[in-house]
Design a protein that fits this description.
With 456 residues, this protein is an alpha+beta fold. It is 49% helix and 8% strand. It is built from 17 helices and eight strands. The termini are far apart. The structure holds iron/sulfur cluster (2 copies). One iron/sulfur cluster is lined by residues 311-313, 350-351, 354-357, 405-407.
Length: 456
């Protein structure tokens, strides 16, 4: 080998060492900020060891130096090829659309509200006797936010309760009188206006879709509207997400997780109420769909509005935060411009190979299998009875699945570099899964409760 080639190889090794050290130090700092101490240590160690190897090989003469140089440079080239070459086999993964509407009375939240001996109770269990045993067992558990539950904490549970109670104040404000002064606005401009305003109010992402039949429940299952047929003939639905705090979700199944859920139900609910009121004010019917008073199935609307895909947990997986969001919806007749949805099969592909949520689920509610045909629609469905049963023991809404999902990492440069690779390359997506298990753990432990929350 001539001297010029050798100098080029040495230079490449030294440049690689600098880049590796810079990247992994950055990753370590970000992980430290995210309170992922194990990840920070691993990134730092990889950065030091890898950059030292490249530097040593570039600077010092030793037997087989040339061979080692080629191996080290090939490793980098291999990684870059895996990251950038868009090879992925997702032809067998197709978008799916429900055929039937969901009856809200079959949800565990609705069943849990049925009182023994009431007319609704008798009617429901006459038709669904198979549900009686499990529902009885769940009702005998302490209950969500109960002082008798396993993870009871007086301050955190009372805070969550305060947020849920505040949402409840808005339950009857979801709809109202429409102004007789109809103001006709340019659909494109008002769509943009509503999206920007929603973001200003705290929404993360906003999408607009045509309201489809399967978006709405067939029958109401909660509160005073129990058993009412849902007749929602609005033309459009505006769906938006709000972020759930990373640290709080990470501490699931303990108090901070349920505090955060309640808070974001409230935050999303308030935005929905404001937008619906605004639309009625300019002369068009509009209804907000918020916690405890939904006529639509929010994840289905949000998916069609282009905000994400439905993953293994049956939740909306958003591109930047995965399932770590809450959703609210406003349905309306205000003429709007709908968003073009582009199906992203990479999420389903990733979930097919990952089952981290299923591994950590304390109630085995999440399937390890691939999507199955349920009512002629290929999808995942969690066992809501098992999941809710755990909630009523824990006292919180758990969130272990959300907290370990590789998509739930914060929206920053480090994780966005990974997100780009996941979307771009099937091989990188598999490598990410492997690395996520090593760096964050296959079954990461719940994060400890922040000191300021410990008051008892
Ligand atoms: S919330 Fe908890 S119990 Fe429910 S599916 Fe997720 S991990 Fe399982
Ligand atoms: S943890 Fe894995 S399988 Fe579960 S939703 Fe997230 S990506 Fe999909």
């Amino acid at each position: 080998m001539n001297i010029t080639n050798f100098i080029i190889i040495e230079l490449l090794l030294i440049i690689s060492a600098i880049v590796i050290f810079a990247f992994f130090t950055y990753a370590a700092i970000i992980s430290f900020i995210e309170k992922e101490k194990k990840a920070a240590l691993i990134f730092f160690m990889i950065g030091v060891l890898a950059s030292m190897s490249y530097l040593y090989t570039g600077f010092f003469d030793f037997k087989y130096q040339f061979l080692v140089s080629i191996i080290l440079l090939s490793l980098i080239i291999g990684l870059l090829l895996i990251y950038f070459i868009p090879i992925r086999f997702t032809a067998n993964i197709s978008d799916v659309f429900p055929k039937d509407r969901i009856d809200e009375r079959n949800t565990i939240f609705s069943r849990n509200e049925l009182h023994l001996g009431s007319e609704n109770f008798n009617y429901y269990y006459q038709k669904n006797p198979d549900k009686l045993k499990i529902d009885d067992a769940i009702k005998n558990n302490p209950g969500v936010l109960s002082p008798e539950s396993r993870n009871y904490d007086p301050a955190m549970f009372s805070s969550a309760d305060a947020s849920f109670e505040t949402v409840a104040i808005f339950k009857n404000k979801v709809d109202g009188k429409v102004s007789s002064q109809k103001i006709n606005l340019n659909p494109e401009k008002i769509s943009t206006y509503i999206k920007n305003w929603a973001k200003k109010l705290g929404a993360l992402n906003v999408g607009i879709t045509e309201l489809k039949d399967y978006h709405s429940y067939s029958y109401r299952g909660r509160g005073e509207n129990y058993g009412n047929k849902v007749v929602l003939d609005h033309k459009f639905a505006i769906a938006f997400t709000v972020e759930m705090d990373y640290d709080a979700v990470k501490s699931g199944p303990y108090g901070p997780a349920v505090m955060e859920s309640a808070q974001q139900y409230l935050a999303s609910g308030v935005i929905a109420i404001q937008i619906a009121k605004f639309i009625r004010q300019i002369g068009f019917p509009a209804r907000a769909h918020i916690d405890g008073n939904y006529e639509v199935v929010c994840p289905l609307v949000a998916k069609d509005a282009g905000l994400g895909e439905i993953g293994r947990m049956g939740l909306l997986m958003t591109p930047k935060l995965g399932p770590r969001v809450r959703i609210a919806v406003v349905t309306t007749d205000l003429p709007l411009i709908i968003d073009t949805r582009k199906f992203d099969p990479t999420v389903i592909d990733f979930c097919n190979n990952c089952s981290k949520c299923a591994v950590v689920c304390p109630s085995n509610a999440i399937s390890f299998d691939e999507r199955k045909s349920i009512n002629d629609v290929k999808r995942w469905q969690i066992n809501q009875d098992s999941c809710y049963s755990f909630w009523t023991l824990s006292g919180t809404d758990c969130a272990r699945c959300l907290s370990v999902c590789p998509y739930s990492h914060p929206d920053n440069l480090l994780h966005n570099i990974v997100r780009f690779g996941i979307i771009n390359s099937g091989n990188f997506s598999r490598l990410t899964l492997f690395l996520d298990d090593i760096i964050y753990g296959k079954k990461p432990a719940a994060k400890s409760v922040p000191d300021w929350m410990k008051v008892s």
